[in-house]
Amino acid sequence: MKLATLKDGSRDGQLAVVSRDLTQAHFAAGIAGRLQQVLDDWNFLSPQLEDLYTALNQGKARHAFAFDPRQCLAPLPRAFHWAEVPAYPDAAERVLRALGIEPPAALREAPAIVAAAGDGLLGAHDEALFEQALPGLDFGPQLAVVSGDVDAGTPADRALDGVRLVLLANAWRSGADGAAPPAAFAPVAVTPEELGAAWRGGASE
């Protein structure tokens, strides 16, 4: 299924289900008002959202309306924890070699997990405000996941069971001190099964 959070004047917005073709939406208020509620009780609430998603795609949702991504917050506007991991060496090496650049030896080291602010994540159409002009400012697309509870030290294959949603993100970086606005997220988050064969072993193609 596809989920979005629409602006309603509050910090956390209003959860909505979005049709597969991204043309229609339906508020999920009768099931859950916020995405965090769904994450806290996934096994009980997600099947109800799936039923609404099916009805919406079949044109049977009575109060459907046109979906406007400009009215979206980040799917999860505030997260208890947000962490970033640089591209894994093999992916980064492929990109550099395609550009005719020899990858540095340091690239072969395991990527580090970087904790980032999750208290005010941006929507795709939100303004990114910079306190001042930052030298070396750059940005980059990311694949992000929203997970349920995953205990520290959980093996990678079992941690995949905790992945609830997948979405695209954009993060900024400054060559000076790393200062940048919070990451921005695509309007819609999808469950892994929406990706079909493109979602394999925690990677998306």
- Number of self-contained structural domains: 2
**Please, how many helices?**
4
Structural class: alpha+beta
Biggest β-sheet: count, sense, barrel?
5 strands, antiparallel
What does this entry look like structurally?
There is one protein chain. This protein is of the alpha+beta class and 205 residues long. Helices cover 18% and strands 26% of the residues. The strands form four sheets. Strands 4-3-2-1-11 form a five-stranded antiparallel β-sheet. A four-stranded mixed β-sheet has the order 7-10-9-8, with no helix packed on it. A two-stranded antiparallel sheet has the order 5-6. β12 and β13 form a beta hairpin. The model has no long low-confidence stretch (mean pLDDT 84).
Short description:
This protein has helices spanning 35-40, 42-57, 89-98, 156-159; strands spanning 2-6, 14-18, 24-27, 65-66, 82-84, 114-116, 122-123, 138-147, 163-173, 184-185, 189-190, 199-200, 203-204. The protein is of the alpha+beta class. It starts with a strand and ends with a strand.
Task: Describe how the helices and strands are arranged.
Elements: E1 2-6, E2 14-18, E3 24-27, H1 35-40, H2 42-57, E4 65-66, E5 82-84, H3 89-98, E6 114-116, E7 122-123, E8 138-147, H4 156-159, E9 163-173, E10 184-185, E11 189-190, E12 199-200, E13 203-204
Parallel strand pairs: 7-10
Antiparallel strand pairs: 1-2, 1-11, 2-3, 3-4, 5-6, 8-9, 9-10, 12-13
Which key terms come to mind for this protein?
alpha+beta; five-stranded antiparallel sheet
